[in-house]
Design a protein that fits this description.
- This is Signal-transduction protein containing cAMP-binding and CBS domains.
- It holds the Pfam family CBS.
- It is built from 6 helices and 6 strands.
- The model has no long low-confidence stretch (mean pLDDT 95).
- The chain is globular and about 45 Å long.
- It has a 3-stranded mixed beta sheet with strand order 1-2-3.
- With 129 residues, the chain is α/β, with parallel strands linked by helices.
- The protein binds adenosine monophosphate (AMP).
- Adenosine monophosphate binds next to strand 3, helix 3 and strand 5.
Length: 129
């Protein structure tokens, strides 16, 4: 099975100028644990991520809800797989980097979606029958 078979898409995205408050609203309303940060001019190009973990960290540091996604998110070392990679590759990178989400890109670098640990749990259930 390939990553494209388990990916959740379309991804829930946010732009870096939004506030933490707006981002939390998106996380809650869409029942996801990660937002993909995209360029306003090119919504298929991921430039960062903001996960629940980042929200917890920001609140732990007493940041106000008015801080921007740019300040609270992760913008370096984006971790991704390609849609045609085997799904085991998604497991591998999550374990290696200790993250619960991995971006899934098309061969041309466009964002297809996100695989979360929850998607992989569903995949395990399916394959164990
Ligand atoms: P997570 O366990 O996936 O909720 O996230 C843990 C930390 O890793 C947070 O600081 C995220 O911003 C970061 N993170 C999560 N997924 C990715 C990814 N695909 N690429 C880079 N950083 C990520």
């Amino acid at each position: 099975m390939k990553c494209r078979d388990v990916v959740s898409h379309p991804p829930i995205t946010v732009t870096p100028d939004k506030t933490l408050e707006e981002a939390v609203e998106l996380l809650a309303n869409h029942d996801v644990g990660l937002l993909v940060v995209v360029d306003r001019d090119n919504p298929r190009r991921p430039i960062g991520v903001l996960s629940e973990r980042d929200v917890v960290r920001a609140i732990g540091w007493k940041a106000p809800l008015t801080v921007t996604v740019r300040e609270a998110g992760t913008f370096t070392g984006l971790i991704y797989v390609y849609a045609d990679d085997p799904v085991e590759k998604a497991f591998e990178v999550m374990m290696k980097h200790n993250i619960r989400h991995v971006l899934v890109l098309e061969q041309n670098g466009n964002l297809l979606g996100v695989i979360s640990i929850r998607d992989l749990a569903k995949f395990c259930k399916l394959s164990s029958g």
